[in-house]
Amino acid sequence: MSLQHRAKLARRLLLHRLIVNYGRYMSYSKWIDRINRRPLLQTFAQNNVLVPSFSSREAMWSFIASRRPMAIDYLEFGVHQGHSIFHFASENRSAGSRFFGFDSFTGLPEDWNSDYQRGHFDVGGKPPKTDDPRIEFVVGSFQETLPKFIANFKTENRIVVHLDCDLYSSPLYCLTKLDSILPAGTILMFDEFGDVQHEFRAVHDYLASYRRQVRVLCSHNDFFAVAVELQ
Predict the structure, then answer these.
(1) What are the C-alpha distances in Å from 44 to residues 163, 186, 191, 224?
(2) How confident is residue 84, by pLDDT bands cut at 50, 70 and 90?
(3) CATH number among 3.90.1150.10, 3.40.50.150, 3.40.50.720, 3.30.1490.100, domain 48-230
């Protein structure tokens, strides 16, 4: 065995022992995980630095609405008090549009971070009131309501999906369940895309698992919120 080959084997053995012992003696660190994922977001931002950037979420929503002035089906996950779904409905006045807001209205199902813990955003299980007949609220957990909705969903409209559900598990579940009804040209909006441990990670994992590609349309707050078009 050559000296060079022995050196390669020694490096492999040393690396293997390092990995095994690290997992055995070191606990998981969210802080280290966040640091490891930041370069992925930074690369994403650098690759899309020329897309329009808006100073407010509302301006970004209006920009997207202007790109879809025709009849649309708007699916929102994470409604809270209805600010974004009402804004979008006011921008798109097509009589053929439909707006579906999914939420349990009992707050986060699990802790998001130290500031937003389980139950945060609870509004007593009651959806906001509206006199717009095009808006429908789907009350319950996504896992309970989305399969039934998809089974009965039929449309000839363009689709816009707004994910504002914060946690890793929620946008990942919604995207994977929705994938079969999301054709090329569907617009996806992400409200906390810049959270690398939650929404960004969920989007990254969905696109990789389902082999979907996106074109970035615009951003807000240094890519903390983004809108993309499925290819």
Answers:
(1) 19, 20, 16, 11
(2) very high
(3) 3.40.50.150
The CB-side HSE value for 48 (13 A sphere, CA atoms) comes to 22
User: Tokens standing for 152?
Assistant: 């009965």
Alpha carbons 63 and 226: distance in angstroms, whole number: 12
Residues 110, 200, 153, 87, CA torsion sign: positive
pTM: 0.86
Query: Which residues, 6 or more positions from 4, have their beta carbon under 8 angstroms from its beta carbon?
Result: none
Averaged confidence pLDDT in the chain: 92
- Average pLDDT of 63-73? 96
Confidence of residue 116 (pLDDT cuts 50, 70, 90): confident
* DSSP class per residue in 85-119: HHHHHHH---TT-EEEEEE-SB--SS--SSSS-TT
Contact indicator for 191, 223 with CB cutoff of 8 Å? no
Whole-number pLDDT of residue 3 = 75
CA distances from 65 to 104, 109, 128, 230 (A): 26, 30, 22, 16
Q: Which residue has the tokens 């579906």?
A: 100
**Is residue 25 scored above 90 in pLDDT?**
no
The mean pLDDT value for 16-36 works out to: 70
Sheet with 214-220, edge to edge strand ranges: 53-54, 214-220, 225-230, 187-190, 158-163, 72-77, 98-103, 135-139
Q: What angle do CA 111, 117, 121 make, to 5 degrees?
A: 115
